Structure formats: structure tokens, C-alpha cells
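Posting here for the record, re: 2-deoxy-2-amino glucitol-6-phosphate.
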Amino acid sequence: MCGIVGYIGAEEGKDILIEGLRRLEYRGYDSAGIAMLGADSKLHIVRCQGKLNGLECKLREEPVSGNVGVAHTRWATHGRPSEENAHPHRSGPFALVHNGIIENYAVLKQELESQGHSFTSQTDTEVIVKLLDREWQRTGDYWEAVRSTLGKLKGSYALVIVNEQEPDQLIAAKKESPLILGFTDSAYFLASDVPAILPYTRKVVYLNDEELVFINRHGYRIESVVDGKERVHEPHWVDWNPVMAEKAGYKHFMLKEIYEQPRAVIDTFRSVIDLERKQIRFAELNLDRDLLNRIKKVCLVACGTSYHAALVAKYMIEALCRVPVEVDLASEFRSRDPVLDESVLLVVISQSGETADTRAALKEGIDKGAQCRAIVNVVGSSIARMAHGVIYTHAGPEIGVASTKAFTTQLVALYLLALHWAAETGRQSVEAIEQYIQDLVELPGKMEKVLGDAEKIGIWARKYMHYKDFLYLARGPLYPIALEGALKLKEISYIHAEGYAAGEMKHGPIALIDEDMPVMVLLKQGPLFEKMISNVQEVKARDGQVLTLIEGEPGDSGGLNDGEFVIPPSSDWLSPVLFSLPLQLFAYHVAVLRGTDVDQPRNLAKSVTVE
Ligand code: AGP
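Prediction output follows.
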């Protein structure tokens, strides 16, 4: 996610802003910038693609100083990483930084262009500052122009505005993206996260959604964007140490990222769904009806956790779009001389967008003339740039080596691809598509519920942390989640774990079952439920221990198990997201109890850029 720092006070602000960005670097970014009101009462803006060192180099050539300003590190969501797309963005007397996704930016941009406004970037953020400039010219009132601008925005934002005609003011607003206000007796700070301001103050006010704050050198006023009424919040005293602060108070990045998943899923589907019209619009996929109607086969290719997302998508796409889907590990696909041509849609999936085997698989597809698309989490990554079209997950930077929020947002992106395909080709009715979209809109709430019940998973972890082997069993679209759960456990706790299609038990794995081989079983209501119950009985009959994740009501597994965790009901295609969460938490808690390096497990890298 982007990082924002704002400052107004009596001291020189440049170093405060740059140091603040450094303390937000863990959030991940691909460009940075700063805007300061100089002694000449003019706005001075310096931006650069890349890391903060590059910005500091530029600042040595183009120095800025002053005691009012904003700074920003950008994690690209709209528009590639570049200096033109870096924040702050300017229009008229305003410089603005933003974190979030403006869903209706394209419509607003068209309106502004039709009124003669020109744009220099591909970002949704530049639309905000152009809109503000237009509203200010229309109303002649700065505060009113800010209120009017925010009223036209749909989506999420944390933004800070500097106005060279109001050198003693900062204005900020928040909706769904993080923004805090910190202050001392003589200075006011705005930041995306606590670490940026800890060196200066521990007194903070956490802004609520749809709140606006007007700040000058002597105080601030918070008001509601909705009704304009003043809001008063008690300041908090932050007692985190700097290391804790980087993880927003979580012990590990992985745990933070597990709990960020509902937000990441919302950001991912809101970047492509018009919730009012219940329509899906991919900005950069380049996959229209004509093309889709010519596709005879889909190849989904990835590595590791991303491969498990591809396995789930096979069930989804074949069921909803009625087109054959092959799924391959990238390392195998690239070396088996696959049969590809223009009638094949190759979709590669990669969080980092840099995995060597996946890049090679994509190149194989490009060289053989397939239609090639990518689902990635990093804007401007190699794979994103190589493919003929891309769907971005909006998980934000994933720091923990074990992939969690990237995985669940990949599942959502693949679900959206399947719905887009089914809608474009008429394989599903308008009503069915609207229901599938409604199922997705309800998903984050169910995710929050699962994450809220996590205490039981910690109890399981304490009971089973010393076992040497685990078996994960499931059927249908949950089978890949058994594989994913086993991968999570093995890669961060170093316990041997295998995921298996439960129907295969009699074909071998049942020989493994005894009291020393705990079995995690995933049960979903539906045609496969009874078969899964039979598998549980087989395991219990051989003194195996069974931990059950079950969709339904407590006790639905008939007391056959040694532990039961209830999952809220959802569709076949979204239940994999819900079942993933307790498996991520189980692996996490076992690893913490076993004292492994959860965020940096031995021998692993976050992105395998070498073969
Ligand atoms: C997932 O927990 C692992 N860290 C690993 O399997 C990862 O999914 C795999 O290396 C693929 O990475 P990518 O999605 O960045 O291509």
C-alpha cells in the first residue's frame, strides 16, 4: 500500500517527511515524491521512480525546504511505476497525495477532459486534484471545494492536500484507507501508519471513515464528509516500539497480512466491479467477447501457492464457462513443449510477477502464439509487462514469504475472470451473474467472522505442534485448499505435510494413518459431504486423529473428530477463500510455537527469480 506523510509546524519539514517515508518503506513501493511550500510561498514538487535514495539524490540537485508539506511512497494500482505517475499530483495551487482506489475515476476523468482539463498521468489520484481545482474555481471557496470534491468520489482514499494560496493549512480526508493525525504543542503530522510519526509524537487521533480534517499551525477541526458536522475524538497515546509499529502491532508481517485479507479482497473486486450496475469491467485485460468466443482451451500456469489458486480456478471456469481448462506447474509447462496456438488462452498467475519459471512459461505461450494474460500483484512487474493483458490483485505488498492475502485475492481475481467470461459469452444469465457478484460482496464479512473465531486454531496449534507428519484431505474445489494448507504448514513450521484428494485415500495414503498422523479434513455441505464423512470414519477406524473444518453448524460432522471449526456457508467457488483462512492461521501458530522464522522461513525467498 502507499505511504503518506504530511507536516505543518515551526520546524524545517523536509527531513521529517523523508524520514517518515523511510519508516513506511516496509509497506512496499515503487516510486516516491515530496511537495513543500517554500519560503517563496510556491509549491516545490520533486518525484522519482524507484526508491527513496533516488528521491534524495534528486533533492540534492533540486532542494526543497519549508514547514508545510506532504510526501508519498507509491504502490502502483493504476498506471505503471514512473515519475509521471508518482505522487504528489498537482493542479492549480494544489498538491495532493492519495492512498486507495477511486472506482469512478474513469468517468470523472472523461468529464474533466471534456471540460478541457488535461492529464499527465494514468493515475486515479490526478483525477482527484484536477476535480479539486475545478471545484475551487467554481466555488471560490477552498474548504467548500474540498467537501464538494470528496462528495463526488466513489471508492477508498486517504489523502492530504497542500495549497500554495493557504500556506498555513493542511487538509486531509479518509475513507477506508488508513490515515492518522499526530500532534505536539507546535506541530501537526499526518501519516498512513504510526511508525512515520513515532520519533516526534506518540499522541495520535485515529480518523474514522468519511472524515475530513482541517489543520493549521494552532489546531485542527475534524468534520464528517457526510453531514459536515464537527467530530471530536479523544487522542490516543501510542506505546508501540518502532519494530512493533512497522507491523502495525502484529508480531509478524504474515499475521498482519492474514488479517488484511478482507480489505484486500474488497480492494480487488472493487477495482473491477461497478457495484451499482453489478457489472465487471477489466481495465487492462484486453479480453472481449469476440476473443473469448474463439478460445477453445485455457491453460493456467503458476508455481507454489499461485498454482493452487490455478487448480481452484479449473473447477470454477469449467463449471461457469464450459471451456476445458488445463493446469500446469510452470516448471513442467515450460519444458513439455505444450500444444499452444491462437485458440488457447494462457493465464499465468504470480504474486511477484517475477518468478523465473512462470516468466519462462509465459514466454513459451507468447512464442507459440497463444493469447497470454497474467494475474499479478505487482504493477509494472516483468510478467505484467510481458503479457497481452493483466488483472491486478490489490493485496498491497506481501512481505511475509508465505503467501496469504495474495492467494485469496488471486482466487477472487480468477472468480471475476470466470464471471466476466460467462457474462460476455452468455454462458450464465444476467441474474446468475448478479447473484455471483452478490456472493462476492458478502465474502469479506464472512472472512472477518472466520478470522474472529481464530482462538480455537491457536488451541489446535498448541496440541499438535510436535507431530512430525500431517495429512490434509478434501474433494472438489476444496482439494487445492488441502494442498495449500499443507504447503503453508511445511514452509513455515518445517513439519512434513501432504495435501491429498480424499478420494485417493484407499489408493495409498490410508496406509499412513495411525495416532501419529493427524488429518485435517475440509467438509463442505453438498454432494461430496457424505463421501468426506466416510473418509473421516476410515481415519477414525484406524486410530487417526481428525481436525475438521466444516461448513454448517457445530456438530454437523457427527462428533467424529478431535476438533471442529465451523466455516460460514458460501458458494462452491468462494468457499476455498474461507477454508484457506484457518489453515493459514494453523500453520502460523504452529510455526510461532516451534520458534521458526515465520516471515523469513529457512531456504525460502519471497520471489524465486532464479530457476
Ligand atoms: C507461497 O507461500 C510460497 N511462498 C511460494 O510457493 C510462492 O507462491 C511461489 O514461489 C510463487 O510465487 P509468485 O506467486 O510470486 O509467482
